[in-house]
Design brief:
The chain is an alpha/beta fold. The chain has seven helices and 16 strands. It has a seven-stranded mixed beta sheet, covered by helices on one side. Strands 7-8-11-12-13-14-15 form a seven-stranded mixed beta sheet, with helices on one face.
């Protein structure tokens, strides 16, 4: 598989027969230059969305139209975007599993918030989520935007993910020290990839604390558009 960071909380995952985009944010993403947009979208077969905030959904309609890929996420969020012109949506909920070709995707809880900006303020779009993505003998935990939560205990025990893509920038989500704590306490990762950092000045700029806190785990600081092959 290839895991490719598009900056912030956005990823391209090439797994089994699928090319999956997670929370694609292209326009205005400080980490992703315009010259990378075509490569980020090439051959996409599925789009997954963790929650409604602009840095995760601002480009959803555009990306769905350009790729023709179906979009899946929380049922209320998909209802909102379906009503605003996004075609071929699948709304499911925590505990539910969908098949994307040979890949299985299970929705799991996160601890954050979820809204889009409406004419009169925020429009709430159902619960925030993460995903367990399984294929090629691996399970990837995509945390989405989250703080530490007790649900991580059963999620780690039940799903047994070996790869963690963890929001770890602080301010809006777990910081690096909290992500290291959660990874040690609740999971048995072989590989951890931090995200939702380096984008803005308010966020953490380095994963050094995460690396120091997870001895024996391969912590990989991603670089934009550079595949991590596992």
């Amino acid at each position: 598989m290839n895991i490719i960071w598009l900056g912030h909380g956005s990823f391209r995952i090439e797994l089994e027969d699928q090319v999956i985009l997670i929370d694609p944010w292209l326009t205005g993403n400080p980490m992703l230059g315009d010259e990378h947009h075509a490569g980020a979208l090439a051959g996409v077969t599925q789009i997954l969305v963790t929650h409604g905030h602009f840095d995760h959904t601002q480009d959803l309609k555009m990306v769905a139209e350009k790729t023709g890929a179906p979009v899946a996420g929380m049922v209320e969020l998909m209802g909102y975007f379906g009503a605003h012109g996004v075609e071929n949506t699948t709304g499911f909920n925590k505990g539910g599993t969908i098949k994307c070709g040979k890949v299985s995707v299970t929705m799991v809880p996160a601890s954050h918030s979820s809204s889009v900006q409406g004419d009169n303020g925020p429009v709430y779009t159902g619960a925030e989520t993460g995903f367990m993505i399984s294929g090629e003998g691996h399970t990837i935990y995509v945390s989405g935007d989250t703080g530490i939560m007790a649900d991580m205990e059963w999620m780690g025990d039940y799903h047994k993910p070996d790869i963690g893509i963890l929001s770890a920038g602080g301010f809006y989500t777990m910081d690096m020290a909290q992500a290291a704590y959660a990874a040690k306490k609740y999971f048995d990762f072989k590989t951890v990839i931090p995200c939702h950092y380096r984008t803005f000045g308010a966020l953490e700029q380095s994963a050094e604390t995460l690396i120091a806190g997870l001895t024996g785990v391969d912590v990989i600081e991603p670089q934009v558009m550079q595949p991590i092959t596992l």
